[in-house]
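Researcher: I need the complex structure. Ligand is nicotinamide-adenine-dinucleotide. Inputs:
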Amino acid sequence: MNKPAETLSLLPLWIGGGKVASQSARFGEVTNPATGEVIRRVPFANSTDIDAAVAAAKQAFPAWSETPPLKRARIMMRYLQHLEKNHEQLARLASEEHGKTLSDAAGSVQRGIEVVEFACGIPHLLKGEHAENVGAGVDCYSLRQPLGVCAGITPFNFPVMVPLWMFPLAIACGNTFVLKPSEKVPSASLFMAELFKEAGLPDGVFNVVQGDKEAVDAILQHPEIKAVSFVGSTPVAKYIYETCAKNGKRVQALGGAKNHAVVLQDADLEFTADSLIGAAYGSAGERCMAISAVVAVGEAADPLVAKLRDKAAKLKVGPGNIKEVEMGPLVTRAHRDRVKNYIDLGEKEGAKLVLDGRGLKVSGHENGFYLGPTLFDHVTPQMTIYRDEIFGPVLIVLRTRDYDEAIQLVNRNPHANGTAVFTRSGALARRFQHEIEVGMVGINVPIPVPMAFFSFGGWKNSLFGDLHVHGTEGIQFYTRTKVIIGRWPEQMEKAKLDMPTHE
Ligand code: NAD
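Model: Output:
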């Protein structure tokens, strides 16, 4: 039973170092996907709210950008400790609003915390380059300086990790930040803002607004926002990229995915099937790095499909906060129904439905947004279930005759976030890593997970913009380079009108 609307709390925004009520009359409902219950309300910020958040960030920028990187790093180190101490609570919030299991949520919180660890090295990461004697008595060097107010817009599927891909690095670089998390999972960001304040972050450096397209558009139009980081679906990523470019903002917009795992004939099929089950059905398939398409080469197909079916059928589905549960519900009723429709469509278009998750009932949680693991075989590239990102617990198998056909199939797909190859052959794996046109590659690793000290991002329709998130590309994104050339002449030379060569 849902509580009456008036008894539900309406979340605040976080502006200028404290909780602030939104000026907007619009709001949305946040559900617990495990029970189907509405648990709180989230304001849909308007342009007045965005103006207030940006004004706070702009005011905080001069002092924060002048704070020595070593002092900024010390605040990061304290923040790291606060996040670690509250690891469990962050995972609980993510699991409650998203539906994923607690252990899966805890893993993703850990991946996010690792970006803060990386940001603690900011004095080193901001170092520029120096070349002595580029001309007689002339030196040349470069500095990295912050941009100003930056913004982040994040998706529902990682309420803690994806925001942490962005704001710790931006802030460590000396910027101030406005974050707009997904309206489906709004609470964790507010908690992360509170923890940052406790760690000693000056007011206004980090702000959180809530909302939908209206808030996003106000961010994209705001003249004081210099850079936007976005993670979400491909159509919205493209829109963000184009609008930011038009408005003169720096932008990185990570989009959707269709991640293929190519299984070669020589692969260890037991190991491969176990890996694929985790990658396809973990987090109910709601991961941008989920494996959603298996490309089975030659005779690997029949035994692999049999193993996948047997293992998927045994997965325990239920509320994410129950220990033995392996797969939780989908994020909303609407999304669950959308994924169900894809299963209907797959059947209609002639794919072989090997395992059907549509009939699943979780006893005691009949109103939760559950869907069982689903497996299709004999899928062709023309089918909608191959062409679209489903973002649910639906794994499809395509069959190819050989390695070359498999590579061509993957490279033809317009998405190129992640991919994996399963093989015992070093030579073929090496060929694969070279020939595949995808941004992140796993070799006998189904999900090339984000490592904070490397960058993360796909190619083609999975990323609009030039730079990936975090790692040194994150530092590049959140700073601009200044190149200085200088000399200290003993005496003034005569003026020269030719192009200077400093020789
Ligand atoms: P989404 O695109 O619907 O929403 C992402 C953000 O954009 C949210 O904050 C939302 O409020 C906002 N938004 C939604 N519609 C908008 C519109 N029309 N105009 C302006 N803003 C809008 O994505 P989602 O459903 O929250 O997340 C799932 C998607 O994110 C999947 O496609 C998944 O592959 C992708 N994703 C990609 C990565 C990656 O690293 N490439 C990581 C995580 C998720």
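Model: Summary of the prediction. Residues 47-66 form the longest helix (20 residues).
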